[in-house]
Amino acid sequence: MSTLYPRLVDVHRSKTNATNTSGTQQVGLLGYSGREQSISSSSDPEGEIILYTGLPANIVARQTGRAKTTFIPSDISERQIWQILIPLTALPQYSVRDRDVIVDDEGYRYMVSQNWFTVLGYQLSCFRMEA
After folding, report:
1. Fold for domain 1-16+45-64+76-131?
2. Domain boundaries of the chain, sorted by first residue
3. CB neighbour class for 122 (10 Å; exposed up to 12, middle 13-18, buried from 19)
């Protein structure tokens, strides 16, 4: 860890029927290929594949949730946007996709809504997932 990237994150991806162990993408006339719950293993209740672990990162709040019409002062009607920065040396290009899940060292889970790769590394625009 460093002062620029003081946090550690893991990258997870939802299991789908299109995901297989050979690493090739199946195409054509197939059945449902969306997200599934894992029923084969009790150690993986979320149905996710862990792609990368222990990556250095910087997590910054970008947009605060704002109430459109305030009924109670603590009401928030929009989700907060978080930006997660991962350095160039930690991940190769094309390794993170939209809808991947980032898990930080404090146990918070973020869903990637937009990802882009720059000369400095990945910049991920995310929503924090709530239970």
Report:
1. Thrombin, subunit H (2.40.10)
2. 1-16+45-64+76-131
3. buried
